Every structure is written in C-alpha cells, then in structure tokens.
Amino acid sequence: MDNIIEGNRLISEFTNSFKHPKNSNLMIYNPGGHVCDIDKAKYHLSYDWLMPVVEKIENSKVIWAKSEFKKDGYTQHDGKNNHWYEFVSIGTTCEVREFMSMVPSYEIISISGKTKLESIWLTVVAFIKWYNN
To answer: Considering its fold, how many domains does the chain have in total?
Structure first.
C-alpha cells in the first residue's frame, strides 16, 4: 500500500499537483476536473487517471543541437535533434522506448505486472524516477 501511495504521489507531483492555498496540503485535479487530496489519487486503479500522464510523457519533446563543431574559433551547430518517448503495452508488459531523430529507438524501461493497468502504472512510476535523476 505504501508503494502505491508513494507512486501516486510521484505521478501527481510530475503532472499537476499544487499546494492548497489555505492549508498547504498537496492537491491535484482528478479526471473530472475536481480538486482532491494527493493521497486519494487513483492512478493505479483507473485508465481515466493514468492515460493523461502517459500522453503527457509521450507528447513532450526535447529539442537540442544535434552536434557541435568548431569553425573559426566559434561553436557551430549543424541542426536540431528531436527526442521523445513512447509507451508500448503488450499483454501485461509495458515498456518505454526512447526516440531520437535519425537514430533507432531503444528500450529504457520494461516492466511486467499482474494486469495491463498495473504494468503501465509501474512503468510510469519507473519512468518518472528515471527522468527525475
């Protein structure tokens, strides 16, 4: 149970938590748009809660200079490189693949669970821990 609360708290902090203006508790918006206490999050029980987190991760792109070289004493960049993540769920296994422009994708996390929902939740939690480090 503690792992579920810890995982849901991590997801909430990653996505949309905020401090309640009156009591400083961490709060979140549930899928219905209502405010609730962060410890009442249901990411581990509901696709309605979890899938917006997966979509947020998949829709975030990082763009950086592809390569640098020196020319006349100045650093030059020869273009941009897009970088993004994609979740792949097959049966009760979920993985996150990392993509970069013009580079084959590679798996960074792969986790199996008892159910498809559990494997996606565990993978989201593992990804956020990996991403935050």
So the answer is: 1
